[in-house]
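[[Per-residue structure]]
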Amino acid sequence: MKIKTDRSVYRALPLAVLLLAGCKEPEQAAAIETPEVGVVTLKSEPVLLSSDLPGRTSAFRVAEVRPQVSGIIQKRLFNEGGVVKKGQQLYQINPSSYQAAYDKAKANLDTTRNLAERYKRLVESRAISRQQFDDADANYRQAQADLKMAQINLEYTKVLAPIDGRISRSSVTEGALVSTNQTDALASINQLDPIYVDVTQASTEMLRLRREVASGQLSMAGPDQVKVQLTLEDGTAYGQSGALKFTEVTVDPGTGAVTMRAAFPNPDNILLPGMFVHARLAEGMREQAILVPQQGVTRDLKGLATALVVGPDNKAQLREINVMRTIGNQWLVESGLNVGDRVITEGLQRVKPGMELIPVAARNVAANPAMASSAP
């Protein structure tokens, strides 16, 4: 028995298949035309701003050791480069002539004192005139002063350390002749704990900070908050933090910079005078800072910073923004973005302004701690 097949049924099948395919194509096209992008919703947060400035170390105190009497150096009593204490004897100048002058002044003092005492009894009995007693008394007082000066000069033959610190090499050896008020120092002593770090900041930066403080954008950190961190010449971080102590009151006309000084503890003498360092100096607190991840900021052909934002209608918007500086892995935004904006950080390569988007939470942004320090 043969089954008859209606050829019209077979002719209708391709048409039905085409109709079904045509119904699915708009849905697939719509899915392709609405890409999914990762966004970060901006919020304001307090941020401690800081500047990374070059600087050099300098000794907390420097004392140049010079002789106060003339003579021949008999002994050097310290190890070059070692630590000395205030009052420690460093050199011995030949004391022979000064000892003789002291002995002579002491003998003269005894003579004039005895004469003054004898004349005092005689003047009371009116055996001598008052003028004779006054002359004898004046000679006695002069002898006292001469003895005192002779004693001081004798003590000066022992050259003592004026401060605690690390002493340099000696510029003289035993047998050298030194003189009072000579220009060349015998040695120098540097007090290194604490130690100073002098940094310079452009006056334009200082003016910017003052404008931000005056406008309320920035609140200056208090004296106890102005902490300074150091990075050494080899790139390692110095383990001790310092504090700002001094800001110069004038601008260097040659460089247009202002000098600031911070003090650091230096118990192990790691920092030596003249070392080049980088200091991270706290500037102040921006209470309502807006931070945007670096992945969401690009630059156009003119070098202007831009960001793509998902608008209220879920369409892409291109914004020109002004970024101030980096803070960790984010940019500090000066203008162009607002709190609540949804900045695209993931899937940027598929987005054009005006496109409809499906925003989801970005997965390519690491958490950045608030109150972070920043570098210009």
User: Anything to note?
Assistant: The helical segments are 7-33, 96-124, 130-156, 203-215.
